[in-house]
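If your schedule permits, I should be very grateful for your opinion on a structural question. I would ask you to consider whether the tokens describe a fold that such a sequence might reasonably adopt. Thank you for your consideration; the sequence and its tokens are set out here.
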Amino acid sequence: MPNNHSLRNSILIAASIAALLWAIKLSEFVLNADFYTLGVYPRSENGLLGVITAPLKHGSWEHLIGNTLPLVLLGSMLFYGYPRSRYWALAGIWLLSGAGVWLFGRSSYHFGASGLTHGVFFYLFVGGILRRDRRSAALLMIAFYMYGGMLLTVLPLDPTVSFESHFFGALSGGVLAYAFRNMDPRPIRKRYAWERRSGEKDDADDPVIGDQWRADYQEVNSATKRAEENTIGVKKTKH
């Protein structure tokens, strides 16, 4: 199961992706340029490159700010909770969401990381439902508590927003969650003493400490018994 070190790495990776988006937006500002051609333009050869580059481009600083926090938080949960499938999931959501927009989107440039964030959210959401282990369920609840509104933003509510990116990102995340549902190892479920048979060892015991605490307890208990016996012997001698 991931430890604190992998959690720090997960946050660092997600934050690095967000930093790349800010660097691209800053370069637009410094160069006084607009990299709108990085977006997906549906059913156009020139817009096909956007399947790869669209999540890197944002229309405004507000657009970028709105995507930064969910990208870092949801990305960190993905990298931490799904150590084996995380990169496959991220790459799949990235490409499949862009391909869906290119095939079925409106004739306009579509860009921004919102398709990516929706895909990661739905990956966590569907993955938690399918896997049903404690870690996946916890990530599902945290993601839903913070960004449950993404369930509705896949609909065409605002004509100025690319709901196509949201929709195909969500669809990609859900499909990949189903495809990779068994790729990641499930955390070992702790079994309490009353659940174990006599003499059976708990697989969830600490791999470093192991049964050492039991040995220490037995040693202390034995020493206590010896002290009690010596005390009784002294009392009998005095009588």
About this structure: The chain has eight helices and no strands.
